[in-house]
Amino acid sequence: MAETKLSEPARKILKYFVRNPGAADTYDGIVRWRLLEEAIHQTTEETQEALAWLVAHDFLREVPVAGSVPIFRLNSEKQGEAAVLLGQSPLRAEGA
């Protein structure tokens, strides 16, 4: 199981991807929806650190895109573990 210390920005990003397992977005897109949809005014460095943590712990995958910036996706193999880390039922997250 991954380390349980999860920063608040990382928690919110992971929660979004667990709720929307088919979602994929760029770093800039994630910054925009985090600032608007989550109504959190975080710095881009905090978002970058949170994304780096989520990728390093294999919750998100950074996917290269030819001729563009990479996108981030939920690692479906870790969806249940991500749900547990967020305090959710793994079955609820997989069926969401």
Strand and helix map with partners:
Layout: H1 8-19, E1 24-26, H2 27-37, H3 44-56, E2 60-63, E3 71-74, H4 79-85, H5 90-95
Helix pairs in contact: 1-3
Describe the structure.
This protein is mostly helical and 96 residues long. It is built from 5 helices and 3 strands. It has a 3-stranded antiparallel beta sheet with strand order 1-3-2. Strand 2 (60-63) and strand 3 (71-74) form a beta hairpin. The chain is globular. The two termini are 22 Å apart. The model has no long low-confidence stretch (mean pLDDT 83).
Query: Can you name the CATH architecture?
Result: Orthogonal Bundle
**Helix coverage percent of residues?**
40-55%
- The rounded distance between the terminal residues' Cα atoms is 22 Å
Quaternary structure state of the chains depicted: single chain
Proportion of residues in extended strands: 5-15%
Class from secondary-structure proportions: mainly alpha
Question: How many domains, as an integer?
Answer: 1
Lateral strand order in the biggest sheet:
1-3-2
CATH superfamily: Winged helix-like DNA-binding domain superfamily/Winged helix DNA-binding domain
Instruction: Give the beta-strand count.
Output: 3
Mean pLDDT: 83
What Rg do the Cα atoms give? Answer: 13 Å
CATH class designation: Mainly Alpha
Tell me the number of helical segments per DSSP (H or I, 4 or more residues long).
5
Described by strand count, sense and barrel closure, the largest sheet is: 3 strands, antiparallel
Shape: globular
- Runs with pLDDT <50, length 5+? none
CATH topology: Arc Repressor Mutant, subunit A
* Order of helix and strand elements from N to C terminus: HEHHEEHH
